[in-house]
Amino acid sequence: MSDAAAPKIALVGVEKSFGRKRVLDGIDLTVAPGESLVIIGGSGTGKSVLIKCILGIMRPEAGSIRIDGAETVGLRRRGREQVMRKFGMLFQGSALFDSLSVWENVAFGLVQGRGMDRAAAREIALKKLAAVGLGPEVATLSPAELSGGMQKRVALARAIAAEPEIVFFDEPTTGLDPIMADVINRLIVSSVRELGATTVSITHDMVSARRIADRIAMLHKGRIVWQGPASEIDRSDNPFVDQFVHGRAEGPIQMEVRAA
Amino acid sequence: MTETLSAIGAVFLAFLAAVGGLARFAVQALAAAASPPYFPRLIARQVLYIGYYSLPVVGLTALFTGMVLALQSYTGFSRFNAQSAVATVVVLSMTRELGPVIASLMVAGRVGAAMAAEIGTMRVTEQIDALTTLSTDPLRYLVLPRLIAGLVTLPVLVLIADIIGVFGGFLVGTYKLEFNPVAYLTQTEQYLETMDVVSGLVKAAVFGFLIALMGCYHGYHSRGGAEGVGQATTHAVVSASILILIFNYALTQAFFSR
Questions:
Q1: I want to staple B135 with a disulfide (CB 3.0 to 4.6 A). Which of A36, A113, A133, B57 is the partner?
Q2: How many CB atoms are located within 10 Å of the residue A196 CB?
Q3: pLDDT at B176 over 80
């Protein structure tokens, strides 16, 4: 395989359990450089756990996770920090730091993670805030003073502030009205395109998935049950995908009451 | 019989796992101190929060403790004509035991709970995960500054509590029990040794570390939303209070047993 075809992210046989509950049951997945992969699936199917395993926040019990061809499972602190510099992440609830102002949130990774001068980091933060449609008047506010949609924009600005090679999006439109959800989807597409980054998103919002994805993979009970180009999602001939895309209660997917 | 033994064994193993987990957490956080980056602004903020903002509650507690101590010891000692020992009893009790223990228990309730709630909220809202993705070690950024601040601030707070407590005893001794002020102060100073004060300050440093450790540990490992954060807060205060009392005995034994 040539370097050009080498996957940016490659997962082989990844397994993760919590007690007796097996959340990831042998995940095989690759993401090409510059590709936008969206992982869909119901609540509690292991989407967030999968993304946290790739990020190194959780450690899988078995399997391999390679970033740019290098194994990342079991990396120690220094090695993990090096890999982490390639990542940006937008969390489901935005996860902005309450004790810091908006610009300090956006500049956090630059100042604390990379040792950049605060003044220089502030300039970058203001540019990134402008890129997501927020003016400098927002910069000094506290996250608690912002609406949910504005918090998501700030979280997006923070995720792309250090110009990462790989950006993860965890339920980017959850809790937003349809118009704000579309604004966030467009911002994700435009800012990621500008960066040339590889992205992995997890969502159960099909509108968002269609807007963001080059390729879609469906996760069910810890396994990838279907994957293919986003354009083929409506003719997958997969009963799991059909049920999920059309939002039907009847079908092979039986929703579990307990969370993973 | 087997079921009973296995239940006891399970509890014992869970206890050992908890102690091991706590020790590992403390060692990992302290190991972060071996190399930069350090966060002096965060340490300063915690020192201010733990020390300065705890002064009113610790000061009031120390004042009334010293006053009650003078009253009680006078009542007791007057039964065998040993009233002159009141000043000595007040100063030794405050510096050796009551200053560090009462100040630490108050700080455990005020600061330990707040630490657990703050870090616990950060855990359940994924802010701690966000720190990791921003190439920042949460133990280094959140836990270490609090441990350092607890370690260095409590001795200062306890020294102030000692002084206020002795002053409380002086007020009651001179205004209510009609001791001569000069004689009371002479009596206070006469039998006080450096070790009495130093042992209290060492205890305070240990207690400050324990309060911060329990607040951070329970907050860091909280889960399950608001209820989990509430439980973490309770556990932080209860475990810190119990550890303060246990370590107080151990340190007293270490300092003063002949």
A1: A113
A2: 10
A3: yes
ipTM: 0.88
SS3 assignment, position A164: coil
As assigned by CATH, the class of the A3-246 domain is alpha beta
Please report which helix (H) or strand (E) contains residue A88, including its range. Answer: strand A87-90
Radius of gyration (C-alpha) of chain A in whole angstroms: 18
Q: Do A55 and B133 touch (CB under 8 A)?
A: yes
Write the burial class of residue B166 (CB in 10 Å: 0-12 exposed, 13-18 middle, 19+ buried). Answer: buried
Smallest Cα distance from B121 to chain A, Å: 10
| A260 band by pLDDT with thresholds 50, 70 and 90 | very low
Structure tokens at A4: 């050009």
Average pLDDT over residues A149-169: 93
Minimum CA–CA partner of B129 in chain A = A57
- The three-state secondary structure class of A86 is coil
* A157 in Cβ contact with A167 (< 8 Å): no
Of A73-77, A167-171, B1-5, give the range with the top mean pLDDT.
A167-171
Average the pLDDT over A222-242 and give the result: 90
